[in-house]
Write a structure and sequence with these properties.
This protein has 4 helices and 4 strands; from the N terminus they run βαβαβαβα. The protein is α/β, with parallel strands linked by helices. Strands 3-2-1-4 form a 4-stranded parallel beta sheet.
């Protein structure tokens, strides 16, 4: 699946609950990315589900509150073996088979 070669970058600020919803979706669907980065510019880090963060091998990185800065920081941290980059808003909701369809298209 394409996610094996993909870095997922989620820029966020004060929305750990929404990020937790995404983490829960990925866990339930058994979707694991090559690299998973949350670029967070808030003080809301204590509310993350750290059991899911560990299970999905998520890295949380502190940043200044700047959309461009968060994007650039995420790109600077890319693993060399990532073939694709997927940026997600923290409030996105996926359909049940979204990743199967994306894999087919890619």
């Amino acid at each position: 699946m394409f996610v094996n070669y993909t870095t997922l970058i989620i820029p966020t600020r004060n929305r750990s609950k929404l990020v937790n919803n995404l983490l829960t979706f990925f866990d339930k669907k058994n979707i694991k990315f090559n690299q998973f980065l949350i670029i967070d510019s808030s003080n809301d880090k204590k509310n993350y589900k750290y059991s899911l963060i560990k299970k999905l091998n998520v890295r949380i990185v502190n940043s200044l509150p700047s959309t461009a800065g968060q994007r650039n920081l995420g790109l600077n941290l890319l693993k060399r073996d990532s073939k694709y980059v997927l940026f997600l808003d923290d409030d996105i909701i996926f359909y049940k088979n979204s990743f199967l369809y994306m894999d087919k298209v890619i």
